[in-house]
């Protein structure tokens, strides 16, 4: 904690939500628990969740303060990529963390992201699951197989220089995120991959920290359908445009 | 340079090398003709091998799931006390 005590930076944590009323409360508690000596704000971008996510966020604002938890909702479900852009507009920190609300991204890793950035001066610190002391829990064989296959394919074709392309638990310098996000057009998993590949091509300094990923306990997944086809299309798109 | 151009350049270089081998016949021609097939087969093997190794050594973390359950319990207790709605 030495470094974080002297750390004068402000961090904006952007959390997109759709039907995460329970998860958002739990994750906010855990963020405050694990980032005691750090200046940060949490920006919740909720897309008009019908389950009352926004009511819970308002209750949390009463408890933790409206300057610490910002609710920046949008009227309807408009997708993840634009949710980040929307949240970014309201970020006042010099660094931005992007994480999911569903507790797959555990806030206990936030200090290691911050520490890594301070030590290396990196523009992006990305969480990786596929290293020792990282890991995944709760995936069946099929999910593991597609994940490994997708990763090998992307590594062989794109040479991206990071080991976990589709993870989305990342810390960015704010200016870098603004630069990279403006040139990204993909959706879903491909979006995360496009962000990191473009950042890599632009020559930004990227560092990795190990994280563990526990499949969501509450709520339901919002991605789905023809993910594999979308992924292959995205791969092709990145091959020709980056 | 777009990435696809890099990959195509690599492929062109390999093809040129192969033509070179065909011309000079350092190794018997019948072998040289088969080289592209060997190349594709070994590429496929490489892919399968990497996926296989990835699956075998897929890092898992069952203890993390237990820790998360504890964290959830702790968070729920605290938030409930503060009057925040954490019913499922
Ligand atoms: N604002 C907003 N948030 C979204 C939208 N779609 C998903 N999210 C949020 O984005 C995060 C990731 O979505 P998930 O459904 O967990 O996607 P995933 O993690 O790839 O899938 P799982 O592994 O099944 O959890 C969660 O916090 C969601 O609530 C959307 O359209 N708008
Ligand atoms: Mg998730």
UniProtKB/TrEMBL annotation, chain A:
What does the subunit comment say?
Component of the dolichol-phosphate mannose (DPM) synthase complex.
Task: Give a GO biological-process term.
Answer: GPI anchor biosynthetic process
Q: Which UniProt keywords apply?
A: Endoplasmic reticulum, Glycosyltransferase, Transferase
What is the E.C. number?
2.4.1.83
Record's keyword annotation contains Transferase: yes
What function is annotated for this protein?
Transfers mannose from GDP-mannose to dolichol monophosphate to form dolichol phosphate mannose (Dol-P-Man) which is the mannosyl donor in pathways leading to N-glycosylation, glycosyl phosphatidylinositol membrane anchoring, and O-mannosylation of proteins.
Provide the Glycosyltransferase 2-like domain boundaries. Answer: 12-180
- This protein's major location comes to endoplasmic reticulum
Read off the Pfam families from this record.
Glycos_transf_2
Q: Under which name does UniProt file this protein? A: Dolichol-phosphate mannosyltransferase subunit 1
Family listed = Belongs to the glycosyltransferase 2 family.
Does the record carry Transferase as a key word? yes
Task: Give the pathway listed in the UniProt entry for this protein.
Answer: Protein modification; protein glycosylation
Name the source organism: Citrus sinensis (Sweet orange)
**Cellular compartments annotated:** Endoplasmic reticulum
Molecular function terms, GO-annotated:
dolichyl-phosphate beta-D-mannosyltransferase activity
**GO (cellular component) term, any one:** endoplasmic reticulum membrane
Tell me which Gene3D superfamilies the record gives: Spore Coat Polysaccharide Biosynthesis Protein SpsA, Chain A
Catalytic activity as recorded in UniProt: a di-trans,poly-cis-dolichyl phosphate + GDP-alpha-D-mannose = a di-trans,poly-cis-dolichyl beta-D-mannosyl phosphate + GDP
Automatic annotation (TrEMBL), chain B:
Tell me which family the UniProt entry assigns to this protein: Belongs to the DPM3 family.
Record-given protein name: Dolichol-phosphate mannosyltransferase subunit 3
Where is this chain's protein located in or outside the cell? Endoplasmic reticulum membrane
Q: What does this protein do?
A: Stabilizer subunit of the dolichol-phosphate mannose (DPM) synthase complex; tethers catalytic subunit to the ER.
Q: Which residues form a coiled coil?
A: none
- What organism does the record attribute this protein to? Citrus x changshan-huyou
Going by the entry's taxonomy, the superkingdom of the source organism is recorded as Eukaryota
Which residue spans traverse the membrane?
34-58
Keyword field: Endoplasmic reticulum, Membrane, Transmembrane, Transmembrane helix
Provide the membrane topology annotation. Answer: Multi-pass membrane protein
Chief place where the protein resides = endoplasmic reticulum
Q: Which pathway does the protein contribute to?
A: Protein modification; protein glycosylation
Annotated Gene Ontology cellular component terms: dolichol-phosphate-mannose synthase complex; endoplasmic reticulum membrane
């Amino acid at each position: 904690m030495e470094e974080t005590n002297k750390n004068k930076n402000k961090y904006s944590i952007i959390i997109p939500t759709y039907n995460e009323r329970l998860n958002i409360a739990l994750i906010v508690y855990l963020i405050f628990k694990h980032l005691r000596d750090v200046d940060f704000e949490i920006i919740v971008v909720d897309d008009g969740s019908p389950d009352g996510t926004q009511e819970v966020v308002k209750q949390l604002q009463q408890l933790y303060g409206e300057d610490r938890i910002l609710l920046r909702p949008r009227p309807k479900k408009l997708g993840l990529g634009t949710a980040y852009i929307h949240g970014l507009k309201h970020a006042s920190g010099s660094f931005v963390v992007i994480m999911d609300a569903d507790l797959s991204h555990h806030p206990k890793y936030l200090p290691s992201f911050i520490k890594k950035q301070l030590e290396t001066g990196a523009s992006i610190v990305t969480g990786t699951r596929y290293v020792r002391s990282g890991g995944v829990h709760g995936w069946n064989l099929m999910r593991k197989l597609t994940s490994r296959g997708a990763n090998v394919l992307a590594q062989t074709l794109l040479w991206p220089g990071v080991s976990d392309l589709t993870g989305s638990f990342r810390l960015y310098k704010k200016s870098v995120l603004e630069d990279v996000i403006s040139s990204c057009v993909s959706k879903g998993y491909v979006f995360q991959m496009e962000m990191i590949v473009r950042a890599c091509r632009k020559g930004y300094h990227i560092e990795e920290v190990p994280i563990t990923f526990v499949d969501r306990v509450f709520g339901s997944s919002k991605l789905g359908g023809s993910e594999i086809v979308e992924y292959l299309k995205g791969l092709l798109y990145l091959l020709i445009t980056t | 340079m777009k990435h696809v151009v890099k990959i195509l350049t690599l492929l062109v270089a390999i093809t040129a090398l192969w033509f070179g081998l065909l011309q000079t016949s350092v190794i018997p021609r019948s072998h040289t003709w088969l080289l592209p097939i060997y190349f594709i087969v070994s590429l496929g093997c490489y892919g399968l091998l990497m996926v296989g190794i990835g699956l075998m050594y897929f890092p898992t973390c069952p203890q993390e799931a237990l820790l998360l359950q504890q964290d959830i319990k702790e968070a729920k207790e605290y938030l409930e006390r503060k009057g925040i709605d954490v019913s499922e």
